[in-house]
Amino acid sequence: MIDWPLTIFEVWHYTVNTIGIFSNALLICLCIFKTPRVIRSYAVLMLNFAISDFGACITDLFVGQRLIPAGIALAYISNGPCKYISGTACYVGYSLMLHFFAHSLWSLLLSFAYRYYILFHSSPSRTTLMLIICIIYTPSFFQWITFLIANDDQTKVETYLRDRFPDYDFDNKTITGTLNILESWQAMFTILHMTLPVTPVYCTILVLRKKIIKELASVAGTMAKMSHATKNMHKQLLRALTIQACLPFFFSVAVASYAIGQLGIYNSPILEYLTFSSLLFIPVISPLISIYFVRPYRTTVVLWYYHFRAAKIRSIIKPPTTTTNFFDGESGPKKSMFWNGTEYQSAARSNHSQQSHHY
């Protein structure tokens, strides 16, 4: 019998993670090699975001985690390639994945704070931004290290799950988890760090977005003769802010689906798969926003695309390496075709036209 929730979950995760890995790898390359001087400071933030999202996609693809909240216990079924290694490998990968998602949330807040700051001050140096990134990364790094020791015996966790969910299929599953999250401060810290900041961070981002839009509108109002290019730049920035401000919503969906099960309100495989399926929107959408709305990056990608198409066309339509004679054995000028980069031309026709001018 086909497990449809698992099948849909796997198709979704493999597809979305593949897109996310490619998009973030592309953004990393653009940040390193194609960043103009005027946005090098902000590129540090985009690079930080891209690395974090790239790690989230890689680890999510590796573990393919299903989250099962069960009273005071919290268990996980790993459906990714890690299950062919060991349960410990799955748990380490899961811990790493959580810390990437947590850091992404703080990085998003930092991005909005930076945009608001530079409206009134000069852009901070790249060294200063890297120091700030290290500071906001500290809680996520601490979460990753401490959560590694919150894993209980797999056999005991599986026995607990079978008693609590007799209708679930746990045969041949890679199961890890914590039997009592109330007695494990490492697990509790991870839960609180992954859930509590979401609402205040989301509200702060919305407030910053409103202030940024208000300031941009006031600047536009005082500059009646603003150039068309500047007006377009403001419009692009407002669109980018609007889309990026929606990203924490997916954190909220993940937290809600987890809380419903952990509080015992309702347990369902759909909710258990939804937790991390909804989070995947963030590391996939975020790099696409940066690539599209940062014009030098968008221009570079477009140029690469046309170079790729041109190379593909040239590989299909290969130019002849030798001349082709159409009247072998006959007297008179021989017609030969040659490639001049854009079209085929007849040498004999060219000679004939030159001769006709002499008559």
Automatic annotation (TrEMBL):
The keyword Membrane applies. It is found in: Membrane. GO terms for cellular component: membrane. Keywords: Membrane, Transmembrane, Transmembrane helix. The chain crosses the membrane at residues 12-33, 97-117, 129-150, 187-208, 237-261, 273-294. It is a multi-pass membrane protein. Belongs to the nematode receptor-like protein srd family. This is G-protein coupled receptors family 1 profile domain-containing protein.
